[in-house]
Design a protein that fits this description.
Length: 124
């Protein structure tokens, strides 16, 4: 399996990444490091740079659609584990638009991209 793990630097995501790698899978981590830590990312996983999962809400933007489509195709991704989200109630009350863009629109953008590129396994 070749999998993308969003939120792969967080507690649950990094443990999932470790298990997937131990099981012999190739893993590509997307995380903005806002709550996760770079040191949590297994060194055998691909991690290029912090990526704000809110960017996935912009999958309607032609440049980003093309970049992500090329990424999925080039790396032959067949599974997406989506664990990234903005967390905690108090900050979501103070900035609901940002939380919605990340947690709702970002998830929708990933789902649409998965459908558009024939990725049948999407674990949320």
């Amino acid at each position: 399996m070749r999998a993308v793990v969003t939120g792969g630097a967080g507690f649950i995501g990094s443990n999932l990444v470790d298990q997937l790698i131990d099981d012999g899978h190739d893993v590509f981590v997307f995380d903005d490091l806002s709550s996760g830590k770079k040191k949590n990312i297994n060194p055998k996983a691909w991690f290029d740079r912090p990526v704000d999962v809110a960017d996935f809400a912009d999958l309607a933007h032609p440049a980003y659609v093309e970049w992500f489509a090329n990424f999925l195709k080039k790396n032959k991704i067949d599974t997406i584990f989506h664990l990234a989200a903005r967390a905690r109630v108090q900050p979501s009350i103070k900035d609901p638009i940002r939380f919605n863009k990340t947690n709702v629109d970002g998830t929708l953008g990933l789902l649409k991209s998965a459908v558009d590129h024939g990725i049948e396994k999407f674990i949320f």
